[in-house]
Amino acid sequence: MVQYQAHLDSTFAALSDGTRRGVLEQLGRSDASISELAQRFQMTLTGMKKHVSVLEQAGLVATRKVGRVRTCTLGQRRLQDEAAWIARHQQLWSTRFDALDALVEQLKRKEKADATRTRI
Fold this sequence. Notes:
With 120 residues, the protein is mainly α. The protein is built from five helices and three strands; from the N terminus they run H-H-E-H-H-E-E-H. 12% of the residues are buried.
C-alpha cells in the first residue's frame, strides 16, 4: 500500500503543474526535444529540464538522447491506478452529495409544512 500511495503521490504531484500538463498534451500530439518544449512554453532549458525530470520520475515521460538532442515521448504509464483512485473517490463524493441533497429536500418539505401549519 505504501508503494501504491507513493506512486499516486508522484503522479498527482507531476500533474499538479500547468506547464507539465501542457507538456503532456504536447507530447500526446508528437515527440519533442527539450529545447522545442522550452521554446514552446517560453522558459529556459534548465527550467524545462526540471519539469521533464519530474514527469520522467512519475513515469509519464520517457527521454532518449541522440547526440546532443534529448527527445521526449509519452511514457509507458496509462494512469489506470490514478483513474481508479479518482473513480472511487468520485463515487464516494457522489454518494455523500446525494445524501445531502435528500436531507436538504427533507428540510425544505418540513419548513414548508411548518409554515403552512403556522398560518392556519
